[in-house]
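Researcher: Structure for this, please.
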Amino acid sequence: MMLSTSLLLFLATCGVEVSSFSPAPMLATGASAQHRQMTHIFSMPDDPYPSDYDADDLESTEKTVSVDMDENDAIIRDELKRELILLSSVTNRGSCATTEESNLVVDLVTQLEALNPTADPAANCQGDWELCYSSTQSFRSSPFFLAIRSFLGDDNKQIAESAFDIHDAATTASRVGKVRQIIDKNNNELVSEYEVSVGLLPGLPVQVKGTVITSAEMSVIRPESWELEVKGTKVKGSNVPFLDAFLDDSDLEVPVGEAYKAVSGAVPVSTLKTFYVDEGLRITRDVDENFYVFTRA
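Model: Predicted structure, token format:
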């Protein structure tokens, strides 16, 4: 109940109530200006686009899935994956990566996405996956935090970023264990497992351990994209006497989705995009282009 109350207070505190384009005309110069007819491109106040073209005519800049069918590129993919996994291990999943190492990982990820061997990657991610690299805080791969980012929206992105930084600083002393995602496309569900150990008091060799499990309803909406709606959060595997048995046996879950409905009337919809997946590796991006690299568990 404390987690539910904290969530309601956080959302209530951070929640938000759910130009015409007129470039200057091209002026003709030189001696031929008198004989050249000028065309003025302008917009009316209720028309955001210049009148001589339609917005649909513009090419989309949104990233799309690449599918590499060249069998000879398999060797290149394997080399890129080996280097990526090596960097993931020596940087503690990216949490202690230098700027040079981070830039190198970005380059490796970009190359792998261009060599993606799987059509419709979002529909081909069934199974258990373990996080091996994250370009941002690893906890942001959980639907719980993805929902917070979606709830606040782009207009309040900085509020979300500040909240995540505060959470990160508050848990600096904790040790993150396995971070997993279990994707069950038959039941349209994504389950996030975040294993963490937190010291009770500085200097004391006593830690509270547990796995925070968050479930979300998942829908494949495009070849690369999922939409997620968080459902609930619970804790399993606690090492606290008596509490561990109670939590494991009672299956007590905080209904996060219902809390959002009570606050705003709807569950925030989060989008994840997978631009690379094969039999052993997956690269998924969130709405802010943070990427998460998973290997088969």
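Researcher: Any notable elements?
Model: Residues 258 and 265 are 9 Å apart (CA to CA). The chain is about 30% helix and 25% strand.
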